[in-house]
Input
Amino acid sequence: MPLAILVRYGNGAKFTGPAPHVRKAKSPMSISRPLVVATLLALQATWSTAQSTVASANTGNSTASGANYFTPSAPSDILQRSLDEVRITVGNVKLDKWKRGNVRDEAGTNIDAIQRDLQGTLPGLLKDADSAPGTLTKVLPLSRNVDALYDVMVHVVEASRVVGTGDSVGQLQTALNDLEKARVVLDNQIQLTADMQEKQVVDLRTTVQKQDASLRAAATPPPAPKCPAPTPAKKKRVAKPAGAATTPATTAKPPAGSPAPTKKPQ
Output
């Protein structure tokens, strides 16, 4: 039986060909060959899917672990191709074929400024940035210069649309788009570098604070034990003798009807 028919039959499609010859086993349960082939194919597909899932999981873990260790690329690797394209494109512009006027004159001035920057200023900035791509003080001047270069290129492209030729417009626009893409990549790398350095500073500050607290705790002597306050002495009660007790003298009143006592004359 052809393999295509076996696969279709094993996948549940309606079998329209001649009935296959089935070899019955000695046991009472019989299994058809198409079902066996379909089962093997299904197991193979399941095994391939499982392997793909494991590989994807390993790749994801590797990517997640590598995200914690960001190493910036050299800025020249990001910018050099687009800068060369800009240099070649503006060098091939034929201003004498553009319409005369102030727009063409301004475009010529901008092209001269772009060429001076590409030949004089940018090479030094690229060299400094490549020497320390993770140092923002080295990369930020390059980024600002590329931004200014992009702005001047925008003016040249707009002028070419007004007074330039069709081929120059397309070439200048392509060079501008490539420069924009490279500029975005560099800006994203600068942002990632700043975020990484900020996290390192926060982690370092936290570590220093913990170490300082540990040193202070180790240098501070333990407090002296508090002495209990003395209890006041109880006063002893002194017992008075029995004979010392005196009772106040009382004057008995004379009974009623008796004559009052007379005072003796002195």
Q: What stands out?
A: The domain at 75-216 is CATH 1.20.120 (Four Helix Bundle (Hemerythrin (Met), subunit A)). Residues 166-219 form the longest helix (54 residues). The chain is about 65% helix and 0% strand.
